[in-house]
Protein backbone atom coordinates (compact mmCIF):
# COMPACT_ATOMS: atom_id res chain seq x y z
CA UNK A 1 0.00 0.00 0.00
CA UNK A 2 1.42 3.34 -1.02
CA UNK A 3 1.37 6.26 1.37
CA UNK A 4 -1.09 8.93 0.32
CA UNK A 5 -2.48 6.86 -2.53
CA UNK A 6 -6.24 6.69 -3.10
CA UNK A 7 -7.66 3.64 -1.32
CA UNK A 8 -11.07 2.03 -1.71
CA UNK A 9 -12.36 -0.55 0.76
CA UNK A 10 -15.29 -2.79 -0.06
CA UNK A 11 -17.37 -4.60 2.54
CA UNK A 12 -19.02 -7.66 0.96
CA UNK A 13 -21.90 -8.82 3.13
CA UNK A 14 -23.96 -10.76 0.58
CA UNK A 15 -23.40 -14.23 -0.83
CA UNK A 16 -25.84 -14.26 -3.73
CA UNK A 17 -24.26 -14.59 -7.16
CA UNK A 18 -25.45 -11.18 -8.34
CA UNK A 19 -24.10 -9.50 -5.22
CA UNK A 20 -20.67 -11.04 -5.68
CA UNK A 21 -19.87 -8.97 -8.72
CA UNK A 22 -20.10 -5.29 -7.68
CA UNK A 23 -16.95 -5.38 -5.54
CA UNK A 24 -15.11 -7.54 -8.05
CA UNK A 25 -15.87 -5.28 -11.01
CA UNK A 26 -15.23 -2.01 -9.18
CA UNK A 27 -12.21 -3.39 -7.33
CA UNK A 28 -10.66 -4.55 -10.59
CA UNK A 29 -11.32 -1.15 -12.20
CA UNK A 30 -9.73 0.54 -9.19
CA UNK A 31 -6.59 -1.61 -9.41
CA UNK A 32 -6.36 -0.92 -13.15
CA UNK A 33 -6.38 2.80 -12.34
CA UNK A 34 -3.71 2.54 -9.67
CA UNK A 35 -6.02 2.71 -6.64
CA UNK A 36 -5.32 0.53 -3.56
CA UNK A 37 -8.07 -2.00 -2.86
CA UNK A 38 -9.07 -3.77 0.35
CA UNK A 39 -12.04 -6.14 0.51
CA UNK A 40 -13.56 -7.26 3.81
CA UNK A 41 -15.89 -10.27 3.62
CA UNK A 42 -18.50 -10.54 6.33
CA UNK A 43 -21.61 -12.59 6.99
CA UNK A 44 -22.97 -14.18 3.80
CA UNK A 45 -20.23 -12.41 1.86
CA UNK A 46 -17.81 -15.01 3.27
CA UNK A 47 -19.25 -17.45 0.71
CA UNK A 48 -17.35 -15.52 -1.97
CA UNK A 49 -14.00 -16.55 -0.48
CA UNK A 50 -15.11 -19.91 0.91
CA UNK A 51 -13.43 -22.41 -1.41
CA UNK A 52 -16.26 -24.92 -0.90
CA UNK A 53 -18.91 -22.38 -1.80
CA UNK A 54 -17.43 -19.93 -4.32
CA UNK A 55 -18.29 -22.08 -7.33
CA UNK A 56 -21.83 -22.67 -6.05
CA UNK A 57 -23.14 -19.14 -5.53
CA UNK A 58 -26.76 -18.83 -6.60
CA UNK A 59 -29.37 -16.33 -7.65
CA UNK A 60 -32.91 -16.92 -6.34
CA UNK A 61 -35.74 -15.67 -8.58
CA UNK A 62 -38.18 -15.24 -5.66
CA UNK A 63 -39.06 -11.67 -4.65
CA UNK A 64 -36.63 -10.33 -7.23
CA UNK A 65 -38.80 -7.81 -9.07
CA UNK A 66 -36.04 -6.84 -11.51
CA UNK A 67 -35.65 -10.34 -12.82
CA UNK A 68 -38.08 -10.49 -15.74
CA UNK A 69 -38.99 -13.23 -18.17
CA UNK A 70 -37.13 -11.39 -20.90
CA UNK A 71 -33.94 -12.99 -19.54
CA UNK A 72 -35.42 -16.16 -21.01
CA UNK A 73 -36.22 -14.52 -24.32
CA UNK A 74 -39.87 -13.64 -23.57
CA UNK A 75 -40.23 -9.98 -24.57
CA UNK A 76 -41.80 -7.31 -22.39
CA UNK A 77 -41.87 -6.72 -18.66
CA UNK A 78 -43.46 -9.94 -17.54
CA UNK A 79 -42.10 -10.91 -14.13
CA UNK A 80 -41.40 -14.37 -12.80
CA UNK A 81 -44.37 -15.12 -10.49
CA UNK A 82 -43.14 -15.81 -6.96
CA UNK A 83 -45.29 -18.92 -6.90
CA UNK A 84 -43.31 -20.23 -9.89
CA UNK A 85 -40.03 -19.05 -8.38
CA UNK A 86 -40.44 -21.37 -5.41
CA UNK A 87 -40.62 -24.49 -7.57
CA UNK A 88 -37.66 -26.86 -7.24
CA UNK A 89 -35.01 -26.07 -9.80
CA UNK A 90 -35.97 -22.42 -10.32
CA UNK A 91 -32.99 -21.09 -8.38
CA UNK A 92 -30.70 -23.34 -10.39
CA UNK A 93 -32.33 -22.11 -13.60
CA UNK A 94 -32.00 -18.43 -12.67
CA UNK A 95 -28.38 -19.03 -11.65
CA UNK A 96 -27.60 -20.75 -14.93
CA UNK A 97 -29.21 -17.93 -16.91
CA UNK A 98 -27.08 -15.34 -15.14
CA UNK A 99 -23.89 -17.38 -15.45
CA UNK A 100 -24.52 -17.83 -19.18
CA UNK A 101 -25.07 -14.10 -19.66
CA UNK A 102 -21.89 -13.28 -17.77
CA UNK A 103 -19.90 -15.83 -19.74
CA UNK A 104 -21.18 -14.39 -23.03
CA UNK A 105 -19.90 -10.99 -21.91
CA UNK A 106 -16.47 -12.41 -21.10
CA UNK A 107 -16.90 -11.86 -17.36
CA UNK A 108 -14.85 -14.41 -15.42
CA UNK A 109 -16.38 -16.67 -12.75
CA UNK A 110 -16.05 -15.40 -9.16
CA UNK A 111 -13.13 -17.67 -8.24
CA UNK A 112 -11.07 -16.50 -11.22
CA UNK A 113 -12.06 -12.88 -10.69
CA UNK A 114 -10.88 -13.04 -7.06
CA UNK A 115 -7.54 -14.45 -8.21
CA UNK A 116 -7.17 -11.56 -10.69
CA UNK A 117 -7.79 -9.09 -7.88
CA UNK A 118 -5.27 -10.80 -5.60
CA UNK A 119 -2.69 -10.85 -8.42
CA UNK A 120 -3.39 -7.18 -9.05
CA UNK A 121 -2.58 -6.40 -5.42
CA UNK A 122 -5.97 -6.32 -3.67
CA UNK A 123 -5.96 -7.26 0.02
CA UNK A 124 -8.71 -9.68 1.05
CA UNK A 125 -9.77 -10.25 4.67
CA UNK A 126 -12.38 -12.40 6.40
CA UNK A 127 -14.49 -11.07 9.26
CA UNK A 128 -13.51 -12.72 12.55
CA UNK A 129 -16.94 -12.68 14.13
CA UNK A 130 -18.58 -14.40 11.17
CA UNK A 131 -15.71 -16.87 10.85
CA UNK A 132 -16.20 -17.83 14.51
CA UNK A 133 -19.97 -17.99 14.13
CA UNK A 134 -19.75 -20.29 11.09
CA UNK A 135 -16.92 -22.39 12.48
CA UNK A 136 -14.55 -21.63 9.60
CA UNK A 137 -10.73 -21.45 9.49
CA UNK A 138 -8.17 -20.08 7.01
CA UNK A 139 -8.14 -23.56 5.42
CA UNK A 140 -11.69 -22.95 4.19
CA UNK A 141 -10.72 -19.91 2.16
CA UNK A 142 -9.41 -19.52 -1.37
CA UNK A 143 -5.76 -18.65 -1.82
CA UNK A 144 -4.91 -15.01 -1.47
CA UNK A 145 -7.01 -14.21 1.59
CA UNK A 146 -4.57 -12.41 3.85
CA UNK A 147 -6.14 -13.14 7.18
CA UNK A 148 -9.05 -13.12 9.58
CA UNK A 149 -9.48 -9.71 11.15
CA UNK A 150 -11.80 -8.01 13.61
CA UNK A 151 -14.05 -5.09 12.76
CA UNK A 152 -11.69 -2.90 14.73
CA UNK A 153 -8.71 -4.09 12.64
CA UNK A 154 -10.68 -3.26 9.51
CA UNK A 155 -11.41 0.25 10.75
CA UNK A 156 -7.71 0.73 11.51
CA UNK A 157 -6.50 -0.53 8.13
CA UNK A 158 -8.96 1.60 6.17
CA UNK A 159 -8.10 4.94 7.68
CA UNK A 160 -8.56 7.57 4.98
CA UNK A 161 -10.08 5.04 2.54
CA UNK A 162 -13.36 5.36 0.71
CA UNK A 163 -15.65 2.61 1.95
CA UNK A 164 -18.32 0.89 -0.12
CA UNK A 165 -20.77 -1.45 1.62
CA UNK A 166 -22.34 -4.13 -0.53
CA UNK B 1 -8.47 19.15 -29.73
CA UNK B 2 -5.20 20.20 -28.04
CA UNK B 3 -1.87 19.12 -29.44
CA UNK B 4 1.48 18.54 -27.81
CA UNK B 5 4.98 17.62 -28.90
CA UNK B 6 6.15 14.14 -27.89
CA UNK B 7 9.58 12.92 -28.97
CA UNK B 8 9.81 15.73 -31.50
CA UNK B 9 6.44 15.02 -33.11
CA UNK B 10 3.29 17.10 -32.76
CA UNK B 11 0.31 14.88 -31.91
CA UNK B 12 -3.31 15.41 -30.93
CA UNK B 13 -4.19 14.51 -27.35
CA UNK B 14 -7.39 14.58 -25.30
CA UNK B 15 -7.91 16.36 -21.99
CA UNK B 16 -6.40 13.43 -20.06
CA UNK B 17 -3.31 13.21 -22.25
CA UNK B 18 -4.34 10.16 -24.29
CA UNK B 19 -3.40 10.34 -27.94
CA UNK B 20 -6.40 10.79 -30.20
CA UNK B 21 -5.04 9.38 -33.43
CA UNK B 22 -3.24 6.00 -33.07
CA UNK B 23 -1.64 6.54 -36.48
CA UNK B 24 0.43 9.41 -35.10
CA UNK B 25 2.09 7.04 -32.63
CA UNK B 26 5.62 5.70 -33.01
CA UNK B 27 8.09 3.84 -30.82
CA UNK B 28 9.96 6.97 -29.78
CA UNK B 29 6.66 8.41 -28.52
CA UNK B 30 6.04 5.22 -26.54
CA UNK B 31 9.45 5.49 -24.90
CA UNK B 32 8.81 9.09 -23.88
CA UNK B 33 5.26 8.44 -22.64
CA UNK B 34 6.56 5.47 -20.64
CA UNK B 35 9.06 7.75 -18.91
CA UNK B 36 6.23 10.14 -18.04
CA UNK B 37 4.46 7.16 -16.46
CA UNK B 38 7.54 6.33 -14.42
CA UNK B 39 8.80 3.46 -16.58
CA UNK B 40 12.44 4.24 -17.33
CA UNK B 41 13.11 1.44 -19.76
CA UNK B 42 10.79 -0.54 -22.00
CA UNK B 43 11.83 -4.21 -21.89
CA UNK B 44 10.85 -6.83 -24.49
CA UNK B 45 7.94 -7.78 -22.19
CA UNK B 46 6.70 -4.18 -22.20
CA UNK B 47 6.86 -4.17 -25.99
CA UNK B 48 5.01 -7.46 -26.16
CA UNK B 49 2.13 -5.83 -24.27
CA UNK B 50 2.27 -2.60 -26.25
CA UNK B 51 2.38 -4.35 -29.61
CA UNK B 52 -0.49 -6.62 -28.62
CA UNK B 53 -2.57 -3.60 -27.60
CA UNK B 54 -1.90 -1.87 -30.90
CA UNK B 55 -2.82 -4.97 -32.88
CA UNK B 56 -5.94 -5.53 -30.81
CA UNK B 57 -7.02 -1.89 -31.15
CA UNK B 58 -6.29 -2.02 -34.88
CA UNK B 59 -8.66 -4.96 -35.21
CA UNK B 60 -11.41 -3.85 -32.82
CA UNK B 61 -11.11 -0.07 -32.83
CA UNK B 62 -10.71 0.15 -29.05
CA UNK B 63 -7.99 -0.33 -26.47
CA UNK B 64 -8.09 -3.84 -24.95
CA UNK B 65 -8.98 -4.47 -21.32
CA UNK B 66 -6.42 -5.96 -18.93
CA UNK B 67 -8.03 -9.38 -19.17
CA UNK B 68 -7.85 -9.25 -22.95
CA UNK B 69 -4.17 -8.39 -22.65
CA UNK B 70 -3.34 -11.23 -20.26
CA UNK B 71 -5.32 -13.71 -22.36
CA UNK B 72 -3.77 -12.48 -25.60
CA UNK B 73 -0.12 -12.22 -24.55
CA UNK B 74 0.20 -15.03 -22.02
CA UNK B 75 1.60 -12.46 -19.58
CA UNK B 76 0.06 -13.05 -16.13
CA UNK B 77 -1.94 -10.47 -14.19
CA UNK B 78 0.87 -10.31 -11.62
CA UNK B 79 3.50 -9.65 -14.30
CA UNK B 80 1.32 -7.06 -16.00
CA UNK B 81 0.94 -5.13 -12.74
CA UNK B 82 4.70 -5.40 -12.20
CA UNK B 83 5.52 -4.18 -15.72
CA UNK B 84 3.13 -1.23 -15.52
CA UNK B 85 2.86 -0.51 -11.79
CA UNK B 86 0.08 1.54 -10.27
CA UNK B 87 -2.68 1.43 -12.81
CA UNK B 88 -1.78 -0.71 -15.84
CA UNK B 89 -5.16 -0.20 -17.56
CA UNK B 90 -4.64 3.48 -18.27
CA UNK B 91 -0.84 3.35 -18.49
CA UNK B 92 -0.68 0.68 -21.16
CA UNK B 93 -3.30 2.40 -23.29
CA UNK B 94 -1.62 5.78 -22.97
CA UNK B 95 1.87 4.45 -23.83
CA UNK B 96 0.45 2.51 -26.77
CA UNK B 97 -1.09 5.69 -28.17
CA UNK B 98 -4.65 4.47 -27.70
CA UNK B 99 -7.68 5.88 -25.94
CA UNK B 100 -8.81 4.75 -22.51
CA UNK B 101 -9.81 1.07 -22.53
CA UNK B 102 -13.50 0.40 -22.86
CA UNK B 103 -15.09 -2.48 -20.99
CA UNK B 104 -14.92 -3.47 -17.37
CA UNK B 105 -12.79 -6.59 -17.19
TrEMBL record, chain A:
<feature type="transmembrane region" description="Helical">
    <location>
        <begin position="74"/>
        <end position="94"/>
    </location>
</feature>
<dbReference type="InterPro" id="IPR032836">
    <property type="entry name" value="DsrE2-like"/>
</dbReference>
<keyword id="KW-0812">Transmembrane</keyword>
<dbReference type="InterPro" id="IPR027396">
    <property type="entry name" value="DsrEFH-like"/>
</dbReference>
<keyword id="KW-1133">Transmembrane helix</keyword>
<dbReference type="Pfam" id="PF13686">
    <property type="entry name" value="DrsE_2"/>
</dbReference>
<keyword id="KW-0472">Membrane</keyword>
<protein>
    <recommendedName>
        <fullName>NADH dehydrogenase</fullName>
    </recommendedName>
</protein>
<feature type="transmembrane region" description="Helical">
    <location>
        <begin position="21"/>
        <end position="44"/>
    </location>
</feature>
TrEMBL record, chain B:
<keyword id="KW-0963">Cytoplasm</keyword>
<dbReference type="InterPro" id="IPR025526">
    <property type="entry name" value="DsrC-like_dom_sf"/>
</dbReference>
<dbReference type="InterPro" id="IPR043163">
    <property type="entry name" value="DsrC-like_N"/>
</dbReference>
<dbReference type="GO" id="GO:0005737">
    <property type="term" value="C:cytoplasm"/>
</dbReference>
<dbReference type="GO" id="GO:0097163">
    <property type="term" value="F:sulfur carrier activity"/>
</dbReference>
<dbReference type="Pfam" id="PF04358">
    <property type="entry name" value="DsrC"/>
</dbReference>
<dbReference type="InterPro" id="IPR042072">
    <property type="entry name" value="DsrC-like_C"/>
</dbReference>
<dbReference type="GO" id="GO:0002143">
    <property type="term" value="P:tRNA wobble position uridine thiolation"/>
</dbReference>
<comment type="similarity">
    <text>Belongs to the DsrC/TusE family.</text>
</comment>
<protein>
    <submittedName>
        <fullName>Sulfur relay protein DsrC</fullName>
    </submittedName>
</protein>
<dbReference type="InterPro" id="IPR007453">
    <property type="entry name" value="DsrC/TusE"/>
</dbReference>
<feature type="active site" description="Cysteine persulfide intermediate">
    <location>
        <position position="104"/>
    </location>
</feature>
Amino acid sequence: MTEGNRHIAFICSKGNLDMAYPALVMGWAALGNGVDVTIFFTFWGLDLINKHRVDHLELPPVANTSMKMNMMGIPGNLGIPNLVGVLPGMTALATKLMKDKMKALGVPPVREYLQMLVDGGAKLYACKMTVDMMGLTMDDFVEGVQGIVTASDFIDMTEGAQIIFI
Amino acid sequence: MPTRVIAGKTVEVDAEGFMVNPNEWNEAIAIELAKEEGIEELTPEHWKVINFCRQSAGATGKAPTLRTITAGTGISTKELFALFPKGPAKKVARIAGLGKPEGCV
